[in-house]
Design a protein that fits this description.
This protein is mostly helical. 62% of the residues lie in helices and 0% in strands. It is built from four helices and no strands. α3 packs across α4. The longest helix is centred in the N-terminal third of the chain and has 27 residues.
Length: 92
Amino acid sequence: MRNIARHEHVLEQSITSIARALLHIARGFGVNLPLEGDLKVMFDDSIITDTFQEKKQDLAEVGVTMSVAEFRQKWYGEALDVAEERASKLGA
């Protein structure tokens, strides 16, 4: 697991650099994109758990025991206030 975490750290730096470069290029072509702020890569532990099934179960629970904002907070790593704002924009 330590080896995986070490690799994830290196990959996170590379992925965020690529994402920033792509956003910069898109803005150069006139695409109106907001500033990216802090980028964070979220690696899952799907080697140990079945993330797909867990996410699918949580999605089924939305509206029953979990709100859309809680789902977004858990799966997209958004702060609760951001998740609530985005959920309200979706009409949820």
